[in-house]
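Minutes, project check-in
Item: structure for the 301-residue chain
Input as provided by the requester:
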Amino acid sequence: MAGPWDRGPRPPRPPAASAGGRPARHPQAPAPADAHQPRNPGAGSEWSGGAGPQRPAHRGELRLYGVNAVDAVFRRRPQAIRKLWLLESRLPALKPLLAWCVRQRVGYRVVGDADLDRLAGSAHHEGVVADVLKPEPLSLDEWLRAVPADAPALALWLDGVGNPHNFGAILRSAAHFGAAVLLPDDSGLALSGAAARVAEGGAEAVPMVRLPDPPAALARLREAGFALAATVVRGGEDLFAREPPPRLVYVMGAEGEGMDPALAAACDRQLSIPGSGAVESLNVAAATAVFLARWSSRRIP
């Protein structure tokens, strides 16, 4: 079966780089306003030689890297793609995306591996980097309106989680189990290129919701029929002791220090994952996957 990258015409191979090492223009479109030029003329310096800066030119954009992360944007909101860089070896796999770029006049360039390392700020780019528009978080009321009334629903309240790799792993698990991610009003946590790569496309599938202050958020979630469970390393009820409710928010604490004690006390339950005691606890991303799987198991006969 064809994969998500196997649709549409394959663009012609670009000519070899000039003696100066600069990638040549795509032969399919004329200069200067060809398909390789960015929509925004102010970003022209990024395309006039070399691979450009390590950060997107605009605050409203996010630099993504990794095949699944870029593919997820292409499948779900292609209009958000602003620029693209890729290795020549990726041309066959990315032909539908490149054909779309040509039709929409979105700039792309074939560059070298070192250029992609510099653009991504990482060697884990898998041969493709893209600048895309940042997704805007929903308000809590917007998300609640989108959740069918009285239907089972699951969310994660991330209280202080800050590591982008943990955040990416949490997003991947949330996408797998169909959970939303709730971000406190004072949280600086936001999607980054590193988090999106670790999420392997999951970031595009997860509703991200910006909460009001904790008392208002707790009241609004309870009014919508959600129970809130604080996840604690020790002293909580055994996660597997009883069935989870159909509408549930797991409150996950920060790496290391855990969650705000006042927030934990304000939740309806405190839950812990039983273990052998050989280690103190699970990493927050691993623990999140366990909690989400426990809720999901309630739907399995």
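Outcome recorded: The first helix runs from residue 67 to 76.
No further action items on this chain.
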